[in-house]
Design goal:
There is one protein chain. The protein has 112 residues and is α+β, with helices and mostly antiparallel strands. The protein is 69% helix and 12% strand. The chain contains five helices and three strands. Helix 1 packs antiparallel against helix 4. It starts with a helix and ends with a helix.
Length: 112
């Protein structure tokens, strides 16, 4: 697995960071607005935000005194591609297992 994908999965492994990603899916938001729903000190929240930035999922921009965060959905494309590949692989394997079970069942029923 490549390092960028590792960083993205690491960022998404935490419920606070997933909640931030969900909030940003509705549109850009200030750090203060994003931090409000969480019962943690701002420095702790900023650590979560920094990890999201390092993963490439979130981009922040400071305009005046307000720091605004934006979701970068293209970072999720790599995760989506990896998950699609895994889904396809396992679907193919389950189809093969299904065919094997049906074949064994037919042999068993055909044997006197």
């Amino acid at each position: 697995m490549d390092a960028a994908l590792d960083r993205t999965f690491r960022a998404l492994a935490d419920p606070t960071r997933r909640a931030v990603v969900q909030a940003l899916a509705r549109g850009p938001a200030s750090v203060g607005d994003l931090a409000k729903p969480f019962e943690m000190a701002l420095p702790s929240f900023l650590q979560h935000l920094r990890l999201l930035e390092d993963s490439g999922l979130v981009e922040t921009r400071k305009i005046g005194r307000v720091r605004t965060c934006t979701l970068r959905p293209e970072a999720l494309a790599a995760v989506e591609g990896w998950l699609d590949a895994q889904r396809s692989l396992w679907s193919k394997r389950l189809d093969q297992l299904d065919n094997l079970v049906l074949d064994l069942k037919e042999r068993e029923e055909g044997t006197p």
